[in-house]
Write a structure and sequence with these properties.
Helices cover 56% and strands 9% of the residues. The protein has helices at 6-14, 19-25, 30-37, 44-54, 58-61; strands at residues 2-4, 63-65.
C-alpha cells in the first residue's frame, strides 16, 4: 500500500503557501512533515487538520496507490 501527497503539494503551490506555513498552521510535528515529504502514511488526525487549514477534502490532498502485486 502506498500513498501520494502530490495533490497536497500542488494545492499549496496554488494557494501560495509553503510547507512550513502548513506545518505551523496545522500544528504538524517536524517528523510528521518528514513522513509527508517521503510519501509515508500519517495519522488520520493529521490529515483532518491539513484539510481544515486548507478547507479541503481528503481527495484534494491524498491519493491511494495500490500495490501491483497480488
Amino acid at each position: 500500500m502506498a500513498v501520494s501527497y502530490n495533490k497536497l503539494w500542488k494545492l499549496l503551490i496554488d494557494r501560495k503557501m509553503s510547507k512550513a506555513d502548513l506545518r505551523h498552521e496545522a500544528d504538524i510535528a517536524p517528523n510528521t512533515m518528514t513522513k509527508l515529504n517521503k510519501e509515508q502514511s500519517v495519522s488520520l488526525d493529521v490529515l483532518c487538520r491539513v484539510c481544515e487549514v486548507l478547507d479541503a477534502d481528503f481527495a484534494d490532498i491524498i491519493e491511494y496507490i495500490p500495490d501491483k502485486r497480488r
